[in-house]
Automatic annotation (TrEMBL):
Gene3D superfamilies associated with the record: DD-peptidase/beta-lactamase superfamily
Pfam families: Beta-lactamase (PF00144)
Native source organism of the sequence: Paraburkholderia polaris
SUPFAM superfamilies: beta-lactamase/transpeptidase-like (SSF56601)
Domain Beta-lactamase-related: from-to ranges: 8-308
InterPro entries: Beta-lactam-related, Beta-lactam/transpept-like, Diverse_Enzym_Activities
Transmembrane regions: none
Protein name: Beta-lactamase family protein
Length: 335
């Protein structure tokens, strides 16, 4: 069994990953938490339980949780076109008017992951046709959720998740009190990344949090709290298989399905392992969460380095045993 404390101390001391915040669940109960390394080039103080990291796409499961609550309250119809709720998102693209919250949460919207010259904002296939990881669609879902919920996304997250779960160091927007203890990102060769202080919540990537806070959310999820049994089951039902290849985005359907990895409503799934997962990738930051719904073991970590996902090969087997096809699917390299 790997000594996680020793491994993380050595890894952060040797330089490739400046700082790590990692938390665990064992059988659904809080397990050991680990904090090693430094906050960044801006602050050589040690990472501790209160150090705030960028969670990147680990934002999406929290947004999905809120969306399911809104659906239970009959405020949001997951199968109603978003166009009907909040108007056009992709000008002139008639096919986009079919996109629903269900399509966004399952990454079957047909919209690109990140809008750029190589992938301008348009639909690349009929909504619901297949999987292609698409973060850009979450902005449209956010707009719809804010209209039907009559609250900003940050307010809904605070009222429905952060405050009830005691996630006191979490927000979708920069809070000034974070300035005393936050992590700064670093790229592959250690170059520091300028700190973003997001003023308006972004449903796909803007969560700021700690490992201790986020594992509390995962504990809540594993206990089946906050949703009806029916909604909970819907959350984790495999809806579509991901695609093989070097990128989770597959706009042109060039890759065959990966039958070992699927997507539910906001979570990646390992159906044969009874596990759910998500990864995060912001400039200079990496994050990963994985949990087993049967054993209720779980792990989450945040790293202030573009190399941070590479911890997976050592830290996951030490907490959530068994084969994990999500690691192969994401093509995560070694340290």
């Amino acid at each position: 069994m790997t000594d996680l404390g020793k491994f993380l101390a050595e890894t952060t001391a040797s330089g490739p990953i400046p700082g790590v915040s990692l938390a665990t669940l064992r059988g659904g109960a809080r397990g050991p938490e680990y904090y090693f390394g430094v906050r960044g080039a801006h602050d050589r103080s040690g990472v501790d339980a209160r150090t705030v990291f960028e969670a990147a796409s680990l934002t999406k499961p929290i947004v999905a949780f809120i969306a399911l609550q809104l659906a239970e309250e009959r405020l949001l119809n997951l199968h109603q076109p978003l166009f009907d709720i909040c108007g056009e998102y992709v000008p002139g693209d008639l096919r986009s008017r079919q996109i629903t919250a269900f399509h966004v949460l399952t990454h079957t919207s047909g919209l690109p992951n990140i809008v750029c010259d190589e992938a301008p904002l348009r639909t690349y296939f009929n909504p619901g046709e297949r999987f292609s990881y698409g973060s850009s669609a979450f902005a449209w879902l956010q707009r719809a959720m804010e209209i039907v919920g009559r609250r900003s996304l940050e307010t809904m997250a605070r009222e429905r998740v952060f405050e009830p779960l005691g996630m006191l160091r979490s927000s979708l927007e920069w809070q000034e009190h974070f300035s005393k203890n936050y992590a700064q990102g670093h790229e592959w060769e250690g170059e520091p990344v300028s700190k973003r202080r997001v003023q308006t919540a972004q449903a796909s990537w803007s969560l700021l949090t700690t490992a201790s806070d986020y594992i509390g959310f995962v504990q809540h999820v594993l206990a089946g709290r906050g949703l009806t049994v029916a909604s909970y089951d819907q959350w984790f039902m495999p809806r579509v298989n991901t695609r093989q290849g070097d990128d989770a985005e597959d706009l042109h359907g060039e890759n065959p399905p990966d039958h070992n990895v699927a997507w539910g409503l906001g979570w990646g799934l390992e159906p044969f392992q009874n596990c759910f997962f998500h990864w995060g990738n912001n400039p200079g930051f990496r994050a990963f969460v994985l949990a087993n719904r049967v054993t209720k073991d779980a792990i989450v970590w945040f790293a202030n380095s573009a190399r941070g996902l590479r911890l997976v090969h050592t830290v996951v087997p030490a907490v959530v045993t068994g084969e994990h096809p999500s690691v192969q699917w994401l093509r995560i390299g070694h340290l």
